[in-house]
Amino acid sequence: MVIGHTECGAASISSETIINHLLQRGITRETIQKQKEMGFDFDHLFQGFENSKTSVKRSVTLLKEHPLMPSGITIKGFVMDTSCGRLDPVGLS
Ligand SMILES: [Zn+2]
Fold first, then answer.
1. How many whole angstroms from 64 Cα to the centroid of ligand 1?
2. What pLDDT score was predicted for residue 88?
3. Range of the domain at 49
4. What is the pLDDT of residue 50?
5. CA proximity to 49, closest of 87, 2, 93, 84
6. How far is the CA of 11 from the centre of ligand 1 (A)?
7. Tally of domains within the chain
């Protein structure tokens, strides 16, 4: 199950924000640069998203199509409404 939720703080995240937090917590620019060179893709990993439904769809598709995912595993997406706790299924179409 992939479960997103409404009013998600991660929606407005950016690689810039994350890197600034890392710097504030004492991680050096050199370390961050090294991680980038080793293939840690900050921009790709911390890109935020426009809405939870789209984000859940993207994650479900990624998991379903992943080469290491065994066949026969059911993967479904939902968005939880944080105001009432209701889970709404997210179709892929
Ligand atoms: Zn969230």
1. 22
2. 96
3. 2-90
4. 83
5. 2
6. 7
7. 1
Q: Ligand 1 centre and the CA of 24: distance in Å?
A: 22
CATH number at residue 48: 3.40.1050.10
Residues in the chain: 93
State in Å: Cα 5 to ligand 1 middle. Answer: 6
Q: What residues have a C-beta under 5 A from ligand 1, the ion? A: 8, 10
| 18-36 per-position pLDDT tens digit | 999 999 999 999 999 999 9
Q: What is the pTM of this model?
A: 0.72
Diameter of the chain measured on Cα atoms? 45
pLDDT at 48: 85
Q: Which residues of the chain have pLDDT under 50?
A: none
Residue 3 one-letter amino acid? I
Distance from the alpha carbon of residue 9 to the mean position of ligand 1, in angstroms: 5
C-beta of residue 35 within 8 angstroms of C-beta of residue 79: no
